[in-house]
Amino acid sequence: MSLLVLLCCILPVSPGDVRLSLVDGSQRTGELKSFDGKQLELQSEGQLRSVEAVELLQLEFPAAVSESAAAAGAEQSVQRLYLRDGSELSAAGVQRAVTEVMLQSDVWGAVRVPVESVSAVRLQPEGPGFAEQWGAFRKRDSEKDLLIVVKRDGSGLDFLSGIVSSIGAEAVEFLLDGEKVPVPSARVFGVVFGQPAGARAKFSAGSRLVLQNGDSLRVSDLRVQGGELQCGSSWGQPLRCSVERLRLADLSGERLSWLSELPVLREVLLSADPEGSLLQGLVDTETQQRLFSPRRDRVLQGSSRLRLRGREYQRGLCVHSHSVLSWALDRRYETFELTAGIDDEVAFNAAAGHAVRLVIRADDAVLFDELISAQDPPRALRLSVSDKSTLEVEVDFGDGSSVCDWLDLADAKLWLTQRK
User: The CATH number of the domain where 15 resides is what?
Assistant: First the structure.
């Protein structure tokens, strides 16, 4: 990590400020005056400075919304809409008609999304008890809709496979074996919409917004003027909101790919405990997979963001030993860049000197092979992957123990080869 980046991380940022991350690795802080899609105006150190859009990677905003306002919004928006492009919106009053899903957002107001753009709807608060099951249902490949309900004894979630024709305030119309069954909305936890076999979501190369309330949206034509953000949604609806609602605006576009968003060629947890250790075999394989498989943009066994030495990262992977993951590069990328370290969630064991072994390979070449200890500062890595076909990351037991083995690949990204 450069001195400039380190200073930007620890220097205070006032509520009206924005932190810019630039392509050259530097950062700037100041008050965002305007952004027209081509040029950003930043009030910094008493001067109005201009930054070209092609120089920008992302904009980070402090938590400008008060805790009471955020809590009120969260209480009103207990429902959630999941789109096939990866967007997520908190919502209230979700309804489904024949061709669209309608909802009320405390940020965007009335939102209408075509049904084919929606992957799932959660109608009840997620809660810690159902989070894992709901996540597993959302990952299922099914050509039919899945109606997710809470078991009568409250012990978990169950599902029925059929067709959801409508979602209303009082009932969800469900077609089961040719018979229409009205299910009380209060019993429905959520709906996972079916998708034809072989169909895959197409991710646009536009901007990505992360809001203070946890919403995440892919947008286009991003502009800021007079404290208001305006953009186009991936489903075609113009949107606008106060800049104070933003946490992050990712403008990386076609310059890079975030590793946590790329589909994997291989992802396997070989073992959560080293062979011969006292813990080996105490946890069955299925439970190991559920608890210790890699997480994207979140830590293992929780919903917290990745955090290294007090700095929070919006993107990356948290990987437990002993895991191996690989991705197709297809000779499209020049550089693999990341910050590696033991997540703060478990780094309190640093005094014991626990470590993992990180090995990064591209095709047959070993790019990095070292131990990373809980005592070590985060490691900023920049590795050449030019003309390579496959990237592989292996996180192994570095000290014969699984203690502290939560390795963050924070801000892990692949820079695309720039064609001339």
Answer: 2.30.30.100
